[in-house]
């Protein structure tokens, strides 16, 4: 059903383009006044009433098929375009403070900032001035 509707839509679209290109513009009547043909094939008014009716009919068919295809595609969709997308977490740079927190065992109650100065104090106390 959907394939048939797409084929009809494309054919009507191409036909509509062709029928619009067959019509002449509003300024073409002035050129016909100075020696143009009489267009007796389509009658005295020319091809305008016939082409207008064909254009209107093909435009209505084009719009109906467009709405029908939009309705069918909205009913057939099961998810979003983004449903298969994978969210990547940005790489986080670890700071020295975060690394120190990772190094401390979970049962330890000392803070990483307090552990560093205590470790540095015995080294400073062990040094004696060289006088």
Give the secondary structure arrangement, pairings included.
Elements: H1 2-22, H2 28-33, H3 48-76, H4 96-103, H5 112-126
Helix pairs in contact: 1-3
> What low-confidence regions span 5 or more consecutive residues with pLDDT below 50?
none
**Helical proportion, percent range:** 55-70%
Mean pLDDT over all positions: 74
Shape: elongated
Content of β-strand: under 5%
Order of helices and strands: HHHHH
Distance between the termini: 101 Å
Our count of helices gives: 5
Computed CA radius of gyration, to the nearest angstrom: 41 Å
Largest sheet: none
Query: Tally of extended strands?
Result: 0
- Oligomer classification: single chain
Q: Output the structural class.
A: mainly alpha
Keywords:
131 residues; mainly alpha; 5 helices; 60% helix; elongated
Commentary on this structure:
It is a single chain. The chain is mostly helical and 131 residues long. The protein has a domain at 1-20 and 43-76. It is 60% helix and 0% strand. The chain contains 5 helices and no strands. Helix 1 runs antiparallel to helix 3 (48-76). It is a multi-pass membrane protein. Involved in protein export. Participates in an early event of protein translocation. Pfam families: SecG.
């Amino acid at each position: 059903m959907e394939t048939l509707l797409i084929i009809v839509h494309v054919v009507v679209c191409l036909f509509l383009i062709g029928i619009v290109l067959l019509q002449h513009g509003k300024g073409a009547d002035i050129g016909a006044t100075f020696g143009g043909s009489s267009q007796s094939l389509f009658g005295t008014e020319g091809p305008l009433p016939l082409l207008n009716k064909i254009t209107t009919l093909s435009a209505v068919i084009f719009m109906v098929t467009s709405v029908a295809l939009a309705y069918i595609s909205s009913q057939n969709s099961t998810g979003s375009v983004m449903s298969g997308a994978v969210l990547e977490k940005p790489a986080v740079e670890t700071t020295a403070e975060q690394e120190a927190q990772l190094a401390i065992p979970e049962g330890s109650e000392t803070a990483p900032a307090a552990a560093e100065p205590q470790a540095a104090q015995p080294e400073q106390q062990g040094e004696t001035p060289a006088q």
